[in-house]
Amino acid sequence: MSTPAFNPRSPTMRRIMREAKELSSSPSPDYTAAPLESDIFEWHFTIRGPPNSVYAAGIYHGRIVLPTQYPLRPPNFRFTTPSGRFEVNREICLSISGFHEEMWQPAWGIRTALVALRSFMETNADGQVGGLDATDAVKRSMAVDSPSFRCATCRKTNAEIIAECEAAAAASSSAAATVEVPEELKLAFKDQMGSGGGADAAQQDDKDEEARLAEGFVQTVPDGQNAAGQNAVSQNAAAHNDPAARAAAQLQAHLQAQNTAFVQQIQQQMQQQMQQQHAQLQQQQQQQWQNQTHHAHVHQNPNHYQNQQQQQQHNMNNMGGGHNVDFLQRNVAYAEDVPVWIDMAIAGLLCLLTTLMFKWGYLDRLLMIL
């Protein structure tokens, strides 16, 4: 599979290439990810298991598939290494994946997703798509076997990949910065931990859980000169401390408000149009009823109607308009029912289409283009 023909100057391509460069120049000893040479939309990642858990001894490999609308839409994740927590080679349902697009924020990036993915390994499956509920003993056994797993595409074992990450991180001399799980994902993580938790989690109190979350945060080494731009792209700092994160959140809220206002305006216009068409239909029905009443009156009093028509004809002839009266009598017809329901159906379909575009996120891109 090769990368489709995309303009390298497009926002999607520039965003993906920036993230690939940032992950390469700021390596972490706990995880790594890079796109394939043949397809920039498919990435392979390798992560360590979260500390102080049944996965602590494990090293896990997987795939990330980015949509062509990235970062407006979230990526999808698959694990290729058995872990006892996720099924192998199946898309998994997480709050950072394509199964929950409503929670995804374009300001997040691959690095943020990897940090969150490590934390989510400690949650229970609870019937989620791609999740497993193996025993702790099975998970520990798989964790011990995972470093020897070899990816056919990368042609390296998990242990070799992580060893390269550790060497690259040790060789880097830049100042370290802390990458945290976003607050939205952290809350979802806590909810899932509280819904059942594994044996280790059930034995810990709230303070121990907070300490375990803190240990899940990964130290990275961004370039000092480009740290601000890189953090703005990948949201490596916490949202409440990073101005770029706040700006991205404000932009998203502004676009959301514009979308809502636009949809409401369209709906109001459609409603007004339907009301006008309904009024026209009532007027036409009333006119038809008057015509029918008039016909009935003429049928009951034909002589009176004929005399009235002759009198009108005589008056028009005296005014020199006899020819015009004949023309009108030949061409004027009573109003018929107009199929207004067709216009009403079209208006309803337009309203539905606008609502679906708002739900699917196409209005976001349209407003950004405008």
From TrEMBL:
Residues 11-162 form the UBC core domain. InterPro entries: Ub_conjugating_enzyme, UBC, UBQ-conjugating_enzyme/RWD. The chain crosses the membrane at residues 338-358. Coiled coil: none annotated. The keyword ATP-binding does not apply. CDD domains: UBCc_UBE2J. Residues 227-236 have a biased composition (Polar residues). It holds the Pfam family UQ_con. Residues 220-251, 285-322 are annotated as: Disordered. Keywords: Membrane, Transmembrane, Transmembrane helix, Ubl conjugation pathway. It comes from the Eukaryota. This is UBC core domain-containing protein. It comes from Thielaviopsis punctulata.
